[in-house]
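Q: I'm a student working through a structural biology exercise. My instructor gave each of us a protein and asked us to get a predicted structure, then write a short paragraph describing it. Mine is Leucyl aminopeptidase. I'm not confident about reading structure output yet, so if you can add a plain explanation after the tokens, that would really help. Here is the sequence I was given:
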Amino acid sequence: MIDYSDLIQPDKGQDARTIHLVDKKSHDEWLKGRSPRERAHLAAIDFKPDAYAHAILPGDDPDKWSVVTTVADVEKLSAWCLAKLGQILPEGRYRLDGHQPGQAMFGWMSAQYRFDAYKSETTAKGPRVLLTSDVAAIAPMIAEARAVALVRDLVNTPAADMGPAAIEKTAERIARAHGGKLTVTKGEALEQGYPMIHAVGRAAAKHHAPRLIEIEWGKADHPRVALVGKGISFDSGGLDIKPAAGMRLMKKDMGGAAHVLALAELVMASGLPVRLHCLVAAAENAISSDAFRPGDVLKSRKGLTVEIGNTDAEGRLVLGDALTKAGESKPELIVDFATLTGAARVALGPDLPPLFANDDALAEAMLVGGIARDDPLWRMPLWDGYADLLETDIADLGNAGSSPFAGAITAALFLKRFVPDGAAWAHIDTFAWRPSAKPGRPKGGAALGLRAAWAMLQTRYDRRGKA
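A: Happy to help. First, here is the predicted structure for Leucyl aminopeptidase. I'll explain a few features afterward.
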């Protein structure tokens, strides 16, 4: 992983190239102050203040060039406004002319992410370093960049190397680094205590055996917060097998687990005053003679029985047992992440995760956090009017809705049945993948909703230094 601490550094007057920021309002006035040589150059290349437009400005000698780039608003920099520069500029040090980068530090670092673990040769550039006088903002921004990079790394890793055991190893590293307690339940104990997790994962090879992974951290008298993640390391669809095109990206089906592990590390590394309980239901939805079947009825940890209408609706099964376990400790807040439904992508596309919540204040805080971090969510209705679509003739509920409509909502309603009374709960149906690249956001594994949730947790619980 890139050492992000090298990419943002305190400004102590070091030699650095200047980055000029302009927007559509300020461009003409800024241009008047440039030298005749610079104005002639910009005119020759037909520079205009369009999105992500940038140009190299010649200096008095060949090594004294600077950069101009267009942003939406020079007074309010977004996370992504410097991302393209962070990706394409030559290695070296840079500083903004008359501005502090603020949130743009994140995009600058994010743009330098690379996943080359499986390449025999790499063509990576040296680091592009951004200087800032806002020293207090550096460490928190680096922490967020590292968290996003962790999600990307975990999701990008092929399923052969990122099975349940490898997910457990990541959790172990995080717990050990921050003084957390790791508990792993598998084998017969999993079958007896978490029957739905076991059923989903029992067809996999022994070295990809299912398990519930838990990290507990923090003081007992602090508010209890549970983070729950879907960790399906590969989803074949089970006996209701996916077509080849639908299976191609299913290494990303543990994206929910990647999000909560990265979020848990942010919580622990920052010392957020909460009692953290992170739970990952890890399994591979494989096919063998021991695979669970359509028509089977599973008993859940909660005691509810679930008829299997579709073995490809397995994520909600493992989350049901994990949510039940989380609720047994009576948390005041539960947040789950899951790559749960294709219906969510049909509704909102790959970039905008649906948010479901049973608490209006929590939902609003998540949405506000997403806006603040340029990591947007969109609230969807947790509408009980569709609950009858989960009814079944022979069990307490079915795992697949009886209608092709409202699939993301019925999936959330299924999860709601396993959320304890009295707990504020948010469910993020994240895609965890970018099908095409944008500045600072490469194609591949993606953290979508992570920074929004982190902003919410900080606002809700971090009162240090606040009146």
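A: Here are two points you could use in your paragraph. The chain has a mean pLDDT of 96. The CA atoms of residues 437 and 443 lie 4 Å apart. It's a good idea to check both against the output above yourself.
Q: Great, thank you!
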